[in-house]
Amino acid sequence: MSRISPCLWFDGEAEEAAKFYVSLLPDSRIEMIQNNIVDGPAGKAGTVLVVEFTLAGQRFLALNGGTRFEYTHAISFKIDCADQAEVDRLWDALSANGGSVEQCGWLKDRFGVSWQIVPTALLQYLGGSDPAGARRAMQAMLGMVKLDIEGLRKAYEGKSAA
Fold it and tell me: Which segments constitute the PhnB-like domain (predicted)?
């Protein structure tokens, strides 16, 4: 059966990035590291060329392709978080050491990869049976950087954030 797996392009950071990512989520591991067999654009013979890894059950490939290309928001990875503690832990880890935070639960990690750190509760508030509550939750989300489950709940219920 054919399978699709994302390939992330790095400039010498493939192994570091893969090890970092697998340290964050359960059901994650390094599957294989392949070194360059000759000197080339991707590096000297003996240096890491590709890293195959599994991240939360999804296979990935990290490639040291040579010249760095910047990632865009057109491709991002969304992590569904069970609770605020998980949102906080992943947000802090992925935005650390040169990462940058953005609006509505988006961030870029230190490698430039875009992530969406989203509590699963978000869908219950944005898609709830109360249309006015859903609008209030959406407005609250649009004003957040890191998503806050309690703030979303209060907005949905029409309660003051204070």
Answer: 3-118
Q: Which residues contact 151 (CB under 8 A, 6 or more apart)?
A: 140, 144, 161
Task: State the alpha helices, DSSP H only, in 14-103.
Answer: 14-22, 84-95
Taking residues 60-74, report their average pLDDT. Answer: 91
Which residues lie across from 51 on neighbouring strands?
A: 33, 62
Residue 78 has pLDDT above 70, yes or no: yes
Rounded Cα distance, 18 and 14, in Å:
6
pTM value surpassing 0.90: yes
10-60 pLDDT per residue, tens: 999 999 999 999 999 999 999 999 999 999 888 899 999 999 999 999 999
Question: Please, what is the average pLDDT of the chain?
Answer: 95
**Burial level of 84, CB count in 10 A (0-12/13-18/19+)?**
middle
Cβ atoms of residues 58 and 21 within 8 Å: no
Q: Which residues contact 6 (CB under 8 A, 6 or more apart)?
A: 58, 60, 61, 75, 77
Which residue reads 């609250």 in tokens?
A: 140
The answer to whether the beta carbons of residues 25 and 56 sit under 8 Å apart is: yes
